[in-house]
């Protein structure tokens, strides 16, 4: 439909997740038509990412060195490991400023329907991290859905057998949410996980 | 939040139109984590676009040569010029296969609130195209909104004064749409533009 190279760009942008044909076209024309859009900067960063980004040898998070900045940070609490599915979950937890331990990034969750079992996940490298006995608690922070639940119960069985204390993030009503709009499963979990706040 | 280069990529993707921070993060991790995503291909295309894409000397459409493939095509009807706002409008009209004339791309529409007057648009280069007298009709296909209407009336005054026949795309109910969901303005225009289909 367009002259070759513009169509190539639209096609290539259309492969990105969440970018449909219309968005790809819009982005391509923005790149073509906007004078101050620095195309070479984006191109350079893409190549930099390909060349420089790797995965941390300890936790599997994205990193620019052999070790990510969290595993390399001596001020982090080495007695806690928080297990998450994806690097973006690390970023989400870091934004809370509630956690100062280290992470372990699985690279996904157990999902038999997608052919993802424990062997496809970054689980094996978690074991050596627990051998020294320094870690006192593993906090499982997989997504609160079917796959995340399956992964959490698989991991907890494995870790409890190794004598490690295992916890999971609380499930319940989102803060700022409206009780009447919570789905039944969430509301059910909020009941099951209720905490005594007074009385005997 | 992330290691330097990944955050750079997220920031850079976030400058693209329609890509918010969450989408930018999702795209960035897709690029980082998907083994078979060809980063260098996207980078190369971006640089190619910067180096090769230009605007057609006649119509202002995007082109890889001095003249775009439509203006260079001897089989197109040279007696018709369709005036559109953007290159993507050319593509949309081409997809209909209803039009075999040439185009003129304005690069936008008159919008005083955004500081865009006739001088900021690619209007001046339309005049030499009409001088030979070969063009018998100019079809104005600007968007059916306030800016497109303003541009259409500005152009039609200019062109009628030059003795050129000027038409505008019909406004009315979208095909396949539902009358009850049409907004009042569209429905009003559909009435105003109604065509006699029978009787005397």
TrEMBL record, chains A, B:
<dbReference type="InterPro" id="IPR000093">
    <property type="entry name" value="DNA_Rcmb_RecR"/>
</dbReference>
<feature type="domain" description="Toprim">
    <location>
        <begin position="79"/>
        <end position="174"/>
    </location>
</feature>
<dbReference type="InterPro" id="IPR034137">
    <property type="entry name" value="TOPRIM_RecR"/>
</dbReference>
<protein>
    <recommendedName>
        <fullName>Recombination protein RecR</fullName>
    </recommendedName>
</protein>
<dbReference type="InterPro" id="IPR006171">
    <property type="entry name" value="TOPRIM_dom"/>
</dbReference>
<dbReference type="GO" id="GO:0006281">
    <property type="term" value="P:DNA repair"/>
</dbReference>
<dbReference type="InterPro" id="IPR023627">
    <property type="entry name" value="Rcmb_RecR"/>
</dbReference>
<dbReference type="Pfam" id="PF21175">
    <property type="entry name" value="RecR_C"/>
</dbReference>
<dbReference type="Pfam" id="PF21176">
    <property type="entry name" value="RecR_HhH"/>
</dbReference>
<keyword id="KW-0863">Zinc-finger</keyword>
<dbReference type="GO" id="GO:0006310">
    <property type="term" value="P:DNA recombination"/>
</dbReference>
<dbReference type="Pfam" id="PF02132">
    <property type="entry name" value="RecR_ZnF"/>
</dbReference>
<feature type="zinc finger region" description="C4-type">
    <location>
        <begin position="56"/>
        <end position="71"/>
    </location>
</feature>
<keyword id="KW-0227">DNA damage</keyword>
<keyword id="KW-0479">Metal-binding</keyword>
<comment type="function">
    <text>May play a role in DNA repair. It seems to be involved in an RecBC-independent recombinational process of DNA repair. It may act with RecF and RecO.</text>
</comment>
<keyword id="KW-0233">DNA recombination</keyword>
<dbReference type="Pfam" id="PF13662">
    <property type="entry name" value="Toprim_4"/>
</dbReference>
<dbReference type="GO" id="GO:0008270">
    <property type="term" value="F:zinc ion binding"/>
</dbReference>
<keyword id="KW-0234">DNA repair</keyword>
<keyword id="KW-0862">Zinc</keyword>
<dbReference type="InterPro" id="IPR015967">
    <property type="entry name" value="Rcmb_RecR_Znf"/>
</dbReference>
<dbReference type="GO" id="GO:0003677">
    <property type="term" value="F:DNA binding"/>
</dbReference>
<comment type="similarity">
    <text>Belongs to the RecR family.</text>
</comment>
């Amino acid at each position: 439909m367009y002259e070759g190279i513009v169509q190539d760009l639209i096609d290539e942008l259309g492969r990105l997740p969440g970018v449909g044909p219309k968005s790809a076209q819009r982005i391509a024309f923005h790149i073509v038509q906007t004078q101050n859009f620095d195309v070479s900067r984006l191109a350079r960063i893409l190549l930099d990412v390909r060349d420089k980004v790797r995965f941390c040898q300890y936790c599997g998070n994205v990193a620019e060195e052999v070790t990510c900045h969290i595993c390399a940070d001596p001020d982090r609490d080495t007695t806690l490991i928080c297990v998450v599915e994806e690097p973006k979950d690390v970023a989400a937890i870091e934004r809370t400023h509630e956690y100062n331990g280290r992470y372990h990034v699985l690279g996904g969750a157990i999902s038999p329907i997608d052919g993802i079992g424990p062997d496809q996940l970054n689980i094996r490298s978690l074991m050596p991290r627990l051998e020294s006995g320094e870690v006192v608690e593993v906090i499982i922070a997989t997504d609160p859905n079917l796959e995340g639940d399956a992964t959490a119960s698989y991991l907890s069985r494995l870790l409890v057998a190794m004598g490690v204390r295992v916890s999971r993030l609380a499930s319940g009503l989102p803060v700022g949410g409206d009780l009447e709009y919570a789905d039944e499963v969430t509301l059910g979990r909020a009941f099951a996980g209720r905490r005594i706040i007074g009385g005997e």
